[in-house]
Amino acid sequence: MKISVVIPHWDWNDKMGDYLDRCTRSLVADEVIIVVNDGIGMGKAINIGLRASHGDYIVVSNNDLELVQGSLEDMCNPDGVTWANGAYKGSFYCMPRWVYEKCGGYDEQFEIGYFEDDDLIHRWELADIPMIKVERVVTKHEAGTTLDKQPNRNDFFEANRRRYMAKWGYSPQH
Q: Which of 75, 91, 107, 124 has the most CB atoms lying inside 10 A of its own CB?
């Protein structure tokens, strides 16, 4: 069993390097792929990593997340997508390769950030992919550190909310 980890990284402030260091030290895997975002957007950055991955299981992790209890092996479930305590489904999850092959990666129409993970989760639901919380795996997540301080954060949020609504006819809870 080979595990690949994909981490999008946007180094926009002094803290982001420290977050990434803690993240990568906590995630022991066969392959760790860090994709420097440089403003291309979270979905596009993760898709680059997904295409480059070779693992039987693919873990996607925000760069400001740290695994504090359990292991990546605990996250591997051949039946569906898993996520851990302390993490939103879209910020840290593990999927078997067959899920990626069936549903693909992120829809790149969502710019910079917001709603691309909601879109992927909705596509998993439509494909009847089981989503399983792994209680014994615990993360610490500095949620929102990448975009919360961006001056045009609300613009990204609203534009992507409109895209999501145009695609699916409703807006998910945030």
A: 75
For residue 69, give the CATH number of its domain: 3.90.550.10
Quote the number of domains for the chain: 1
Q: How far apart are CA 94 and CA 1, in angstroms?
A: 13
Averaged pLDDT, 23-27: 91
Asked if 27 contacts 5 with a C-beta cutoff of 8 angstroms, the reply is yes
* CA–CA gap between residue 49 and residue 33 (Å, rounded): 6
Q: What is the extent of the structural domain holding 42?
A: 3-168
Instruction: Show the CA angle centred on residue 99, arms to residues 80 and 139, nearest 5°.
Output: 55
Note whether 123 and 95 are within 8 A (CB).
Answer: no
CA atoms within 13 A on the CB side of 102: 15
pLDDT in tens, 142-170: 765 555 566 677 888 899 999 999 999 99
Q: What pTM was estimated for this model as a whole?
A: 0.91
158 Cβ partners below 8 Å, 6+ apart?
Answer: none
